[in-house]
Amino acid sequence: MFRLTVFVFFLISALISIHFFKDLTQTFIKETYAQHAPYAYPTPAYTTPAPAVPFVTISANPQALIVGGNSTISWTTGNMPAGVTCSNNWNAFLIITPNTSGSDIRAIYNDYTFTVSCSNGYSDSVAVTAIIPIPSTPTFTYAAGACPAGSENSYGNVTWSSVPYASGYELVRDGYGSFGTGVYYGMLDYSVADSGMNALYYIRAYNQSGSSPWGYVYVAIPDCLTPAAYSINTPISSCLGINSPNLAVGINSSAHANN
């Protein structure tokens, strides 16, 4: 009887244990699934792909150069919808085809901003700078003083060479000042009249970037005045005869004479 009682006790205990562990296992599985199932098995969401964004790019090489040099302008347009047109602002004969790349070589004489624009509102620009160098110093090509025929006033005569990138020249004489600025290549200086001096002339070139160093030259200015010249004429009408001797004297003079 005791053995039967013990057997029944263990049987009941086993059944209770099995039921407990079953409930525990189910609870664990439910909790684990609740925590991890959404991440392990995500539901894919359908999204419509965004359309590609149109673009325009433009560049210049080089972007700064000495005036008169060449720069290569390059551009690319992309993702342009059908029906869009593109244009440029520097060459009316150049066709910009949408969704392509291209280049154009341009001589640069002034600062300029190159632009490619498309009809859907997209555009891009690049600025190119034309560098104007400061001009070099001009060289005197002729420098002399002279006395003009028929005039008592001497003058200085100077000429000089043109130099690249110069927009004008300035001539100065020491002790006198500037003769002004402008596009000229020589000067007759009558302000040195009858001086007999060594005149010192300076010349420089200039443009919007600045001025060259001064060049100079000495010019010997002659004195065109000479002492008064006289001539004496002595016609004798008669030395002998009835009448007394008659002496006629003519005097020609001039205050100045040319050399």
UniProtKB/TrEMBL annotation:
This one is known as Uncharacterized protein
Question: What phylogenetic lineage does the species belong to?
Answer: Bacteria, Candidatus Daviesiibacteriota
